[in-house]
Amino acid sequence: MSSAPHTIHKKGSLMEEIHDAREISVQKCYQCGKCSAGCPLAEDMDYPPSVIMRLLQTEDRQNEAIALRSETIWLCVTCETCATRCPMEIDIPGVMDFCRQRSLEKKMTHPKAKNIIAFHKAFLDSIDYTGRLYELGLIADYKARSFQLGQDVALAPGMIAKGKLSFLPELIRDRKGLAAIFRKTLHRKGGRS
Ligand code: SF4
Ligand code: SF4
Q: Cα angle vertex 9, ends 6, 10, to 5°?
């Protein structure tokens, strides 16, 4: 994670928000392109990571909106390849994560991100309720949210037979501690989206 406490940002810009919230200095990017060259998903993205960084650097509302409406921020899987390649040690996955959060809050999500968001929410629900990933619950929740009811159903019997899917969830002991983490996080975010 990198920070530049003496940098002056345009008031209220996304770049300023990212710096204040995550101590990430987007302005340090000098467009070498190493992040985009190494990103395993760059070919599928509408804008490669280095372009997202440039859009944010302009501190222009329209360019910021392009970044927030992009499919890129939802395709990023936080693999960290870009961050390890970046000569300025910029936490690019952290930037993507912040943009996802803002995109949801401002209702600017890319239409193709619908199923990805459904999966994110189903995943968080599973952790929230059990403290672990309960695969069967995750699948049911995701299908209900995404309306992909019939997709991959034929795979389920084989997975259950091989013990890959359990009917009952395993619960962690410290559910109160987990609930406190969720409360704190959601309070900071202003509630679940
Ligand atoms: S963290 Fe995201 S942007 Fe970076 S290389 Fe991985 S998928 Fe690409
Ligand atoms: S690798 Fe770092 S400096 Fe280079 S374009 Fe990507 S974010 Fe910018």
A: 155
The rounded mean pLDDT for the chain is: 86
Domain 14-109, what architecture? Answer: Orthogonal Bundle (1.10)
Per-domain residue ranges of the chain: 14-109, 112-189
- What was the pLDDT predicted at 110? 95
Nearest CA, atom 1, ligand 1: 78
120 lines ligand 2 (CB under 6 A): no
The predicted pLDDT at position 6 comes to 53
How far apart CA 162 and CA 150 sit, in angstroms, is 21
| CB-CB contact of 92 with 132 (8 Å) | no
Ligand 1 centre to CA of 82 (Å) is 6
